[in-house]
């Protein structure tokens, strides 16, 4: 199999390399002022699912929300560690930099806190 046929075959098998939680975090990293509706559309999930995932990520300390007028800004806490034990030594920043090209200065404010962050 080649190209598009391979992709379609993999999608039909019901699994993917990234979870919806990772996709939502990436969408918030790419556009910190995106509406939930837009995050859902970017991730190919419903608005309700996107809202639930943002809540999960906030509760786990990977992001926080801040009101800016009528909009919400997502503040990412990228020093937190990945959740799976085999990647727990890696910060979330490493995952996001992999998918954003690593040249984004606006991924997160410095000094952010998050799950698994260790004090110096």
UniProtKB/TrEMBL annotation:
SUPFAM superfamilies: Winged helix' DNA-binding domain. It comes from the Bacteria. GO terms for molecular function: DNA-binding transcription factor activity. Coiled coil: none annotated. Residues 19-70 form the HTH marR-type domain. This is HTH marR-type domain-containing protein.
